[in-house]
Amino acid sequence: MELADRAVGLLLTLISLSIFTYFTFWVIIVPFVDSDHFVHQYFLPLEYAIIIPVFAGVALLSLLSLFVGSVMLKSRKKNKKA
Amino acid sequence: MKHIFKIISLLAAISAFWVGLLQASIIPRTHTWLLPIYLVVSLGCYGLLMVGVGLMQFPTCPQEAVLLQQDIAEAKGFLKDKGVDVGSD
Prior knowledge:
The complex is a heterodimer of chains A (about 80) and B (about 90).
Chain A: H1 2-29, H2 48-81
Chain B: H1 2-24, H2 29-56, H3 62-82
């Protein structure tokens, strides 16, 4: 149904826009703000801005390779049976 | 091949700009080290945004769907007459 598709599309755009704005604020704007401004309590320390994307990237790559490996194993098993 | 050369030259230009920023030390060092990670994350976000926008604007063509179902039924009947096993019915 096209309504479900449009809802998923809207959700994806909202998620991507929010991640982009939060990350932009985190990396570019917050370091230039004075340390006793109230904004700093909404953002984690700056080291996490490196750890979280790297961790997410590593998790994504490993999930992808797991998926590809499992598909290759399944196709080889099917070839051996037939 | 030309496309690969374009992409590689773009990557080389960006990394040269980044190394230049590192050497010139206009911006504090920690921010310059963060810049590639920021670019990669924003590229991923841009891809996700394009997927979401494309999903929202995808046309469904309901009349074409009905015509397609008629074509499928016609083809199934024709093949069954000729003796080919068509599968689920």
